[in-house]
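Why does residue order matter? Because the sequence determines the fold. Keep that principle in mind as you read this record.
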Amino acid sequence: MENRTLLYEGKAKKIFATENPDHVLVYFKDDATAFNAQKKGSFERKGELNNKITSLIFNYLEKKGIPTHLVEQVSDLEQIVRRVDIIPLEMVVRNYAAGSMAQRLGVEEGTKSPVVIFDLCYKKDELGDPLINDHHAVFLGAATYEELKELYAIADKVNSLLIQLFDKIGIILVDFKIELGKLPSGEIILADEISPDTCRLWDKETMKKLDKDRFRRDLGSVTEAYVEIYERLKSKLEA
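Structure:
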């Protein structure tokens, strides 16, 4: 596994080469950003908790037939993953109106949607990851129509599985975003992370926010919220 050549550093993670050309090492940082990095900070144990939560969720999804890039978690802050070419699109899946969608459409936050809503965002930091449609994605060369069909199918299946999982631990899955990548074979698999950084998660009984909105909105107790998600998932998935 040794090499430790830094390949990429993003807002929340560092990616290092390993001796295996098909694998990279992901290091989860404690840094936190919001509103396209206009707000910056950090909080205790963020990297550790996101690493552990992502590992639990990706292992769960693998068992349910969703291929992911995760190979193994190797430390509190690190995991080995398969090297993929990230598709420059974020798939945002919404079960309830919240955040930017609620603001954009003038809808009360927490309104349940009668249908699953899929938003597509172009991964381009300098543009603020703009909301686009399928035709834009094809025009930009980000994906073909056939690939988009597959991306939506994966996102829909992930949503169904996560709704079931979180419901069992007393959590409402409000919305989440995922990233996908291509293996050299062309297979599209789930990549990046699924954590309270990338999901909106509300307690079913109290409606307390247990996700990065606690950082975005200065609600406090950010680490405690992430710990709560981790402990509930661990209790369910490692039972």
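The first strand starts at residue 6 and ends at 9.
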